[in-house]
Amino acid sequence: MTLTRAFTLLTALSGAVLLGSEARAAEASDFYFSASTGPMWRARATDSAGSTTFKTGFTASGALGYRFGAQRLEAEYTYFANDCDTTDPAGPAIGVEPSSGDADGSVFMANYYYDFAPIAGRFQPFVGGGLGSYRVSINGLTTPSLRTLPAEWGGPVIVYAKSSWTLAYQVRCGVKYRLTERADVLLGYRYLKGSDMDINLVDGSTIHPNAKLHGVDVALHISF
Question: The pTM is what?
């Protein structure tokens, strides 16, 4: 799924839900559903075997939440995907090279948010953070030198692997805009950092990269 397609689906969902919420004048409940998507950038995976940077990718998230006063608790699932950009293997023999392949992953988070007092009518800033677990799949990661590395040096190296689940946290901030009594649109920033993963390679070795990423997303919150 591309970022354009994810945004199109979110827009269609927004229109359908808004029509439904206009038809119902009942007061919003404290429970809500959230769907969001947006770009992510500066994603990087690093360990003692080297580091890989990734091109701008995208995230798609769904969450269930409960608000009590100015505070919110939320259970969130996020899917993210990026194409590889460059790889810098440990050691000076190869150096930084363009890389091919891609990575995608899943993140489960328990989030806490605080909503500040509204400003300029319907705009309301918020901050928050979350703690949870993430897992990453690496699909065909290689570089020109790694692909042609002689067998006596352990080549060719083309990585297909899936990590273990491990700890991750995120920091969030942004602003939401009240559309109706039941619907809000949010624009938010996300910084996500994961602890070291265990990724078993086909040669029997194990690498332990950690990941971090920055992202911006647009979300639709619907009370039910």
Answer: 0.82
Report the DSSP pairing between strands 97-98 and 71-89: antiparallel
Residue 28 above 60 pLDDT?
Answer: no
Structure tokens at 146: 């790694």
Q: Are the C-beta atoms of 47 and 207 separated by less than 8 Å?
A: yes
Q: Are 53 and 46 in contact (CB under 8 A)?
A: no
Spell out the domains of the chain, with CATH numbers in brackets.
3-223 (2.40.160.20)
Distance CA 163, CA 135 (A): 6
What does the DSSP 8-state code read for residue 151?
A: G
Q: Where are the alpha helices (DSSP H) in the chain?
A: 3-23, 144-147
* Residues 44, 41: Cα–Cα separation, whole Å: 9
Measured in Å, how far apart are the chain's first and last C-alpha atoms?
A: 28
d(CA 79, CA 104): 7
Q: For residue range 103-160, what is the model confidence (pLDDT) as tens digits?
A: 999 999 999 999 999 998 899 999 999 999 999 999 999 889 888 888 888 788 888 8
CA nearest to 93, candidates 6, 157, 4: 157
